[in-house]
Amino acid sequence: MAIKMLFTPNGSIAVAGDLSELKLVDSTGQPIDISGETKIWLCRCGASKTKPFCDGSHETIGFRAADKAAAPG
Ligand code: FES
Q1: 11 lines ligand 1 (CB under 6 A)
Q2: From ligand 1's centre to the CA of 10, what distance in Å?
Q3: Which domain holds residue 3?
Q4: Residue 35, pLDDT score
Q5: For 23-47, what is each residue's pLDDT tens digit?
Q6: Which atom of ligand 1 is nearest to the CA of 45?
Q7: CATH number, domain containing residue 15
Q8: Percentage of the residues of the chain whose pLDDT score is greater than 70
Q9: Which residues contact 39 (CB under 8 A, 6 or more apart)?
């Protein structure tokens, strides 16, 4: 199954699908273990204390995301 990334309203990026095909690495190139996970939520507000994962902090800071995605580039 293809990996799907859902930009939730004013919240995280939900990533679901066959995550065994997804390689998640930090800024130093170290792999982030997501083995056994079928869905993960990535922070896009910048406030999470468990980056790159969402810890719900977007709710306490009142994060507001764009309603629509911009074109790449
Ligand atoms: S999106 Fe949830 S803590 Fe940042």
Answers
A1: yes
A2: 9
A3: 1-66
A4: 95
A5: 999 999 999 999 999 999 999 999 9
A6: 4
A7: 3.40.5.90
A8: 100
A9: 14, 15, 16, 19
Give the chain's largest Cα–Cα span.
34
* DSSP string computed for 26-63: -TTS-B---TT-SEEEE--SS--TTTTB--SHHHHHT-
| Residue 73, domain member (yes or no) | no
The answer to the question of residue 13 being in a domain is yes
- Count Cβ atoms below 10 Å from residue 43 Cβ, excluding itself: 21
pTM of the model: 0.92
Beginning with the edge strand found earlier in the chain, give each strand of the sheet holding 39-42 in spatial order. Answer: 4-7, 13-16, 39-42
Give the separation between CA 60 and CA 47, rounded to whole angstroms.
9
Structurally, the chain folds into a number of domains equal to: 1
Classify residue 71: in a domain, yes or no: no
